[in-house]
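Worked example 2:
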Amino acid sequence: MFLFLSKLLPLFFYPLGLATLLLGLIAVWSWKQRSWLQGPALVGFVVLYFGGNVWVSDALLGSLEYGVLAPEPIPSAEAAVVLGGAVYGSNDSQRVPEVNEAGDRLIYAAQLYQQGKIPRLLLTGGRIPWLGGGRSEAEDMATLLQLFGIPKTALLLEPQALNTYENALFSKKILQEQQIKTFLLITSAFHMPRAKLIFEKLGLTVIPTPTDFRTPSLKANPPLGAMLLGLFPDAKYLENTTLALKEYLGLGIYKLRGWL
């Protein structure tokens, strides 16, 4: 019981939990006072509570992550295309680039290379100037993969793309120049549905190999303690909900632009 409470009670003191609790109290108070604040406070409470709820978060993100899975077993291919988004921007204080939450993309790419599934890796990703600039994501990914033991001769770099559509468009040119017809596509699982559709829209045949899964398997049966804790808002689940909404928004925008 002590262990459970030690995990539960701090949630109400962290920024998200505290803000949700205060909005709930304001909604109740304003309802009793018949104040106009009731509406905005209630909307804010609902957004934060359900957005940070594990059930809502896992349902939204899981619908993307398990929508496109890798074939079993994963076939060999002429190359793998690794999408950017796995490293933070470079700065002068860093000796090597730092991976972010999506760093599994690089680990998985290195693993597939070491297993002999692919002889080459095409790394695609630029760097948005107004977000800090610096070296391209492709260059930073190449630096890390070489530290993992991948030879420089096995790496192809595409350092210009600033979004998923450009990842596909610019990669297509390099794939055609290198006469690569079969390739594995490596990106985060929640991002794979949109990425696969874009590559296919450009006439490329994609072998999806998603990684960076952030929700449990659809067959998973979480323990009771985790189920109870998941009823309370947590910043981790709010982040996952935001990722899912961003992807669904991206799917909608890309369809409107004719990219899907």
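The chain has a mean pLDDT of 89. The longest strand covers residues 79-83.
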